[in-house]
Design a protein that fits this description.
alpha+beta, Nucleoside Triphosphate Pyrophosphohydrolase
Length: 244
């Protein structure tokens, strides 16, 4: 079922100001490697989306690429507006698992290569997070990998967006995403279950980010990247993993 919603107009329920940010010393390459080598006991906040369930979800994987700059960043993409699913949304590089893929890590690396031109040998894979099942019909395995940044003074990663899928490639500071003060809880109303006249509220996370100097665009009149839905939920689960 095709569903068109504008998450920016969903009711803002609040932020999680009571939760601490992940300490910056846990966001260094060495700390990230150690955390995945010896994972703590923890639970993800969200594992399955509650809305628009597909009867037979397909396996998929995404790459959470952490770029090793002086202040580490997460590489994200803005999808093109013509796609059938998740058009115009912000996402990690990734997609459906293909029969020739040797598991979700292979899927995430292949898709990242196809979508943004990131060669697999440039990614140091640290591990995976628990699967996240989307209402659009995918069981997604998030794969976290480290990417070495160019030498000091060379900002670009020499990536190339697939014009059929990716409108823009950008980076968001990892520290910003790992601070719950920036995690919005929002909700929109959907029709109730069959036979019910009562609508129900569906909650989701959003992490709007506005880099300095970004102009307004076709996706945002205020020049912000509106990270929400599955991407925000997987980032929230990463927060839980790193803060446990």
């Amino acid at each position: 079922m095709a569903v068109s919603i504008n998450p920016r107009v969903a009711e803002l329920l609040g932020h999680d100001h009571h939760l601490p940010a992940v300490p910056r010393e846990r966001l260094t390459p060495a700390a990230l490697r150690a955390r995945f080598a010896q994972p703590p006991a923890w639970q993800p906040d969200i594992a399955v989306e509650r809305w628009f369930k597909a009867p037979n979800p397909a396996p998929a994987a995404v790459l959470i690429p952490v770029v090793l700059r002086p202040e580490p960043t997460v590489l994200l993409t803005q999808r093109t507006a013509h796609l059938k699913k998740h058009a115009g949304q912000i996402s990690f590089p990734g997609g459906r698992c293909e029969p020739n893929d040797e598991g979700p890590i292979a899927t995430a690396l292949r898709e990242a290569h196809e979508e943004v031109g990131l060669a697999p040998e440039r990614v140091q894979v640290l591990g995976t997070l628990p699967t996240y099942t989307t209402g659009t019909g995918f069981v997604v395995t998030p794969v976290l990998g480290l990417i070495e940044a160019p030498p000091h003074g060379q900002h670009g990663l020499a990536l190339e967006a697939d014009p059929g899928e990716v409108e823009e490639i950008f980076e968001v500071p990892l520290a910003f995403l790992m601070d719950p003060r920036h995690h919005q809880r929002r909700a929109f109303m959907v029709a109730g279950a069959e036979g019910s006249v009562e609508p129900s509220a569906i909650e989701f996370f959003a992490m709007p980010w506005r880099p300095a100097g970004r102009p307004a665009s076709a996706y945002s009149e205020v020049g912000e990247y509106f990270i929400w839905g599955a991407t925000a939920a997987m980032l929230r689960n990463l927060y839980r993993f790193l803060s446990a």
